[in-house]
Automatic annotation (TrEMBL):
Domain of life where this protein originates: Bacteria
Enzyme class: transferase
E.C. code: 2.5.1.21
Keyword Transferase: yes
Pfam family, one: SQS_PSY
A molecular function (GO) term: squalene synthase [NAD(P)H] activity
Name of the protein this chain belongs to: Squalene synthase HpnC
Entry-linked PANTHER family: BIFUNCTIONAL LYCOPENE CYCLASE/PHYTOENE SYNTHASE (PTHR31480)
This protein's UniProt keywords: Transferase
Length: 298
C-alpha cells in the first residue's frame, strides 16, 4: 500500500515504502507511500496520487522555503479551508491557490467516501511542525505520530476495503513504527535543523541533556538512548506486521516490503552501533534483495 512517494530504490523505508508518514526529512523529498508503485492496483493509483499530492503540498507549506512561521500557519489554515470546501456540500468552492490539488482530491473523496478527518489530522501535524521542535515525553511524540503517520495507513486501508478495529490498530503500529524509525534514522539531519524528536523523558532516563544532542555527541549515554528508541520501534513494527495477511492482492505484497524496509533500516542503525548522531544509514540494491526475500517468508 507508504508519505511522500515513488518506486523503491535507495531510500526504500521508511523512505519510499507504502504505509507511513507524510513527513519529509532533510531537504530532499522522500516518501512513505509510493504514488505509482508497480504493486499498487491500477484502479487505486489515481486515488493514492491525489492523497499524496494533498499531503506533499501541505508538507511543503509547513517546511519549504524561508517563510515566517505565521505565514506558514496562515497558508495551512487556508489550505484546510479549501479541504473543507472540497469535502462538504456547503456550496463554497476552494480557492484557486491549490486548484490542481483539490480538483484531483475532490472526486476521490466522493468516489471512495474518504474519511476527511484523517486528511485534517495530517494538516494538524504539519501545523505542529511549524511551532514545535521538542517533545517532552513519548506520549507527546506518539500523539504526533497519530496525526502525521497513522492517517496515511488508515486512508490506504480504506481504499483497500479493510476497516476492522484490529487491522486499524495494526496499521497504526506499522505507521507509527515507520515514523519513529524515520526519526532515529535522521538524527544527524534533523538535530542540526533544530528538531529533536528524541523525547526529553527518555533523555532523563539515560542521563543525556539537550546540549549533548545539539552537539551530536556520541557518548555511551546517547548511544544507549538511541538503541532503546530503535528497539522500541522494532517491537512496535513486529506487533503490527500481521496486517500483511489481511490486505488483499498486490497491496499485501507491497505492505510486506514496507514492513521489511522499516526493519532493514533498523538493521542498518544497529550495524552503525546506533550512532545515527554521526551518520545516516541508507538502503542499497542488496538491501532490496534482502527485503524481497524476507517478504516472501512473512
Amino acid at each position: 500500500m507508504p508519505d511522500k512517494s515513488t518506486p523503491l530504490p535507495e531510500k526504500l523505508a521508511p523512505a519510499n515504502t507504502s504505509i507511513g508518514s507524510t513527513r519529509r526529512a532533510g531537504v530532499d523529498h522522500y516518501e512513505n507511500f509510493p504514488v505509482a508503485s508497480l504493486l499498487c492496483p491500477p484502479h487505486l493509483r489515481p486515488a493514492i496520487a491525489a492523497i499524496y499530492w494533498f499531503a506533499r503540498t501541505a508538507d511543503d507549506l509547513a517546511d519549504e522555503g524561508d517563510a515566517r512561521p505565521q505565514t506558514r500557519l496562515d497558508d495551512l489554515a487556508a489550505y484546510r479551508a479549501d479541504l473543507m470546501a472540497t469535502a462538504t456540500a456547503t456550496g463554497l468552492a476552494p480557492s484557486p491557490c491549490w486548484a490542481p490539488v483539490f480538483e484531483r482530491l475532490g472526486p476521490v473523496i466522493a468516489q471512495f467516501a474518504l474519511p476527511v478527518h484523517l486528511l485534517a489530522d495530517l494538516l494538524s501535524a504539519f501545523e505542529q511542525d511549524v511551532v514545535k521542535q521538542r517533545y517532552a515525553s513519548e506520549v507527546e511524540l506518539l500523539d504526533y505520530c497519530r496525526r502525521s503517520a497513522n492517517p496515511v495507513g488508515r486512508l490506504l486501508l480504506h481504499l483497500y476495503g479493510v476497516g476492522d478495529a484490529a487491522s486499524l490498530q495494526q496499521s497504526d503500529d506499522i505507521c507509527t513504527a515507520l515514523q519513529l524509525i524515520n526519526f532515529w534514522q535522521d538524527l544527524s539531519v534533523d538535530i542540526p535543523r533544530g528538531r529533536i524528536y528524541l523525547p526529553a523523558d527518555a533523555w532523563a532516563r539515560h542521563g543525556v541533556d539537550e546540549a549533548q544532542l545539539l552537539a551530536l555527541d556520541s557518548q555511551p549515554s546517547t548511544i544507549n538512548l538511541i538503541a532503546d528508541c530503535a528497539r522500541s520501534a522494532k517491537a512496535r513494527m513486529l506487533k503490527g506486521a500481521q496486517l500483511v495477511k489481511k490486505v488483499p492482492g498486490r497491496g499485501g505484497w507491497e505492505l510486506r516490503l514496507v514492513v521489511q524496509g522499516g526493519l532493514r533500516i533498523l538493521d542498518k542503525i544497529e550495524a552503525l552501533g546506533f550512532n545515527t548522531l554521526q551518520q545516516r544509514p541508507k538502503l542499497g540494491a542488496w538491501d532490496v534483495v534482502v527485503m524481497g526475500w524476507r517478504a516472501l517468508w512473512m
